[in-house]
Design brief:
The chain is mainly alpha-helical. Helix content is 39%, strand content 3%. It folds into two domains: 39-182; 184-315, Cytochrome Bc1 Complex, Chain D, domain 2, CATH 1.10.760. The chain has helices at 2-25, 33-36, 44-54, 56-60, 104-113, 128-131, 136-146, 171-178, 193-203, 209-212, 253-262, 275-282, 287-299, and strands at residues 79-81, 84-86, 230-231, 238-239.
Length: 315
Amino acid sequence: MGWLRKLIGTVVVLGGAGAVAGWALSAPVRLDAATVAQLSPGDAAKGKRIFYAGGCTSCHAKPGSKGDARLELAGGLELKTPFGIFVPPNISQDAGDGIGAWSEEDFANAMLKGVSPSGEHFYPAFPYASYARMKPADVADLYAFMKTLPAVAGKAPDHKLSFPFNIRRGIGLWKWLYLSPGPVIVLPDGAPDKVLAGRYLVEGPGHCGECHTPRDFAGGFKKAEWLAGAVAAEGSGVMPNITPQGGTKDWSEADIANYLETGFTPDFDSVGGAMVDVQRNIAQLTADDRAAIAAYLKAVPPHPNGYPARKKPAG
């Protein structure tokens, strides 16, 4: 039976080595010194543009709030997903319940690396997998604007997640697979500046792929189907295909830009569903920003719908 003891010993050693390697690979990684050095004092006026490009109010405003109350970022909205219920936290300037005590570097580590000031991984329901593509200067500007917003007391409820999704450390391995600052779509040399600007807004602060791109079993983007539409993370609906082969294939760049500004389609239909909030945020951007987004959406590779065909009702 000596061979059995050796086999068991070998399995134990390999298992232990694997556990140690997994623990090391899953450790939170903070920004390097060179990136931190780019976080010069931000400009709040410029940060307002990034705030609306990022749609911060859509998840972090008090549910049901309207008008100026949308800037009271107390969190609390429940996002029901296949992995459990995620609850966006209070990101107001309250020092105890929000992020008022965070430094600029703390904020940048959250946005670009998905790491909290205490050194824990944030869940990627917070779309840092997209924000990782943002320029540090824009993150600094956003931080400066956030400092102008009101402090709101009260912590949002905790996430409601079952095993193994309640183990934050495992997110470190997810990051190894899916977190990258590189662009999703490699544009050809000589691509117009407008298209490059649109890529930055869509892939980075605008995080459009978070809803409009199908995901694999682990919740990562299927980049080969970028913006092809996806089953909605919440409920049974779908987020539409916004590539040139999708529902907007017959829209011009001007049509797309006008929709983002006014909420009206070329057929005079109006924006609906989750896109209502998104459109209202993008309407706060400049006309050049909306034109850039439109140019990029017409330049991305076309794909068939990234979600199963919907059955037509009987009768």
